[in-house]
Design brief:
Blueprint lengths: L5 E9 L3 H13 L5 E5 L11 H5 L5 H4 L6 H4 L2 E5 L3 E5 L4 E4 L4 E9 L3 E3 L12 E3 L3 H11 L6 E5 L3 H12 L3 E6 L11 H13 L3 E4 L3 E5 L6 E4 L4 E3 L2 E4 L3 E3 L2 H5 L8 E2 L11 E3 L4 E2 L1 E2 L4 E2 L5 H15 L12 E6 L2 E7 L10 E7 L4 E8 L2 E8 L5 H9 L23 H8 L5
Parallel strand pairs: 1-2, 1-6, 2-3, 6-18, 8-15, 9-10, 9-15, 10-11, 17-19
Antiparallel strand pairs: 4-5, 5-6, 7-16, 12-13, 13-14, 20-21, 22-23, 23-26, 24-25, 25-26
Helix pairs in contact: 1-9
Length: about 425
């Protein structure tokens, strides 16, 4: 039988990733003494999830991955409950119930539960040698598997960013890797067809085998994986399978508590849910996206931190709004840099103007999308140095009519902007 005990705090944070850390730091800027309790079902100090691939490659230790110093929680006076899971929220009573029966009473609540890996319905996923690629626990298990002498071949299901990072990590460990992607191209959600084609060439030049337009129907083997069967009955031998299909917002606590949920938890620009004093941030929420002028999931690390900081400020009584975020994917896979941001692939009926520059010989591609002379999206592949300028123009909703024809020039830079814009945005004085 559970022994029920109670904790009390002013601020309860569920989750321990970028959004949670942003909230803690923002709260402490306003309220230096209010009790903060942080609950995480992982047993670890906060770490940088984007560095999981580095850990698998054995070019980073866990200490290298720490997102904040080991003294962070003590320095911020945070009561941590690691390896614990909140199983129920009693919103009206201001309580959260843990899996050990403990109750936490709180005045303000932040859901920073992140995303959870998408697990497709495939026979045999319970076999040894099948792993996701989203947590340090996954990474440790994969690294142990890779270091077994018998592990020679791997299959990665998913040709998106997670899948390709996993594939690159395994290839660096001298593992023969096959990527299986259901759609007809790699990185479909984060690149347009042209950029995807360029990236596919780079991927295949690296030595990866890529199969598109198919998926896995069965995982072969008794207790341990020995191969996979594709939906066209092709068999691929392997000792390791990585599920890199993607992530989906982890909204179960919100759903069980009658908070409004679409794809993610519904919030306003203050990151407050449909219930007062209950907030959500990061991958589990639907923050405002200025490029789309709508609320939608933005599953990227920097957005999680910033939305958590906005939530924390409001929890502590300092009014702030999250109004300048959008999805930006920055990747450097197989030494080929690509950035996509905002609405880079609009529908034909949206009335957008699209500017291109493509140099196939140099694998250089730039695409800028404008609506009513304001940048709403872009892709830069091969040459990404000007991404910061373009993003600043987007965020500031600058009218680009005077200089839009130069946006895709090879040497585009601050000098191409009107002096008034340079001075206002970047502090660059007219020569």
């Amino acid at each position: 039988m559970w022994r029920r005990s109670k904790l009390q705090c002013k601020y309860l944070i569920i989750g321990n990733s970028a959004g949670a850390i942003g909230a803690v730091e923002a709260i402490r800027k306003v309220d230096s003494t209010g009790a903060i309790t942080l609950v995480s079902d992982e047993p670890n100090h906060v770490y940088s999830r984007p560095m999981i691939s580095h850990y698998v490659q054995d070019i980073a230790t866990f200490d290298d991955m720490l997102y904040r110093p080991k003294s962070f929680y003590d320095d911020q006076t945070v009561n941590t409950l690691f390896g614990k899971k909140v199983i129920k929220l009693q919103i009206d009573e201001g309580k959260a119930v843990l899996d050990n029966g403990q109750e936490i009473e709180h005045k303000s609540l932040l859901l920073a539960t992140g995303g959870k890996p998408i697990i497709p319905k495939i026979k045999g996923l319970d076999k040894k040698g099948v792993h996701s690629f989203t947590t340090i626990s996954d990474a440790k298990a994969i690294r142990e598997r890779v270091e077994l002498p018998a592990t020679k071949k791997a299959v990665v299901l998913g040709g998106g960013l997670i899948g390709l990072l996993a594939a690159e990590s395994l290839l660096s460990r001298m593992i023969n890797v096959t990527v299986v992607e259901l759609s007809d191209r790699l990185l479909g959600p984060v690149l347009d067809p042209t950029a995807s084609t360029i990236m596919a060439r780079k991927v295949e030049q690296s030595g990866l085998t890529v199969i598109t337009g198919h998926t896995i129907s069965d995982v072969l083997g008794a207790d341990e994986i020995c191969g996979v069967m594709l939906d066209d009955e092709r068999k691929i031998d392997c000792e390791l399978l990585i599920l890199g299909v993607g992530v989906t917002p982890n909204t179960q606590l919100a759903l069980d508590s009658d908070l409004k949920v679409n794809r993610g938890i519904v919030v306003n620009k203050r990151m407050e849910t449909t219930t007062p004093s209950v907030y959500a941030c990061g991958d589990c929420a639907e923050p405002y996206d200025f490029a789309y002028d709508s609320f939608r999931p933005t599953p990227i690390w920097p957005a999680a931190y910033r939305s958590g900081a906005v939530a924390g400020s409001n929890m502590a009584g300092l009014e702030r709004e999250y109004d300048n975020g959008t999805c930006m994917n920055s990747m450097d896979i197989f030494d080929f840099p690509v950035i996509s941001v905002g609405r880079f692939n609009p529908r034909e009926d949206e009335g957008c103007e699209i500017l291109y520059r493509l140099d196939e010989d140099q694998s250089v591609y730039r695409k800028v999308v404008l609506k009513e002379n304001r940048i709403i999206g872009a892709i830069l592949a091969g040459e990404i140095e000007k991404a910061g300028i373009i993003l600043s123009l987007m965020k500031n909703k600058v009218d680009a009519s005077e200089f839009k024809d130069s946006l895709n020039h090879k040497d585009f830079g601050l000098a191409y902007l009107p002096a008034a814009i340079r001075n206002k945005m970047f502090g660059v004085k007219k020569d």
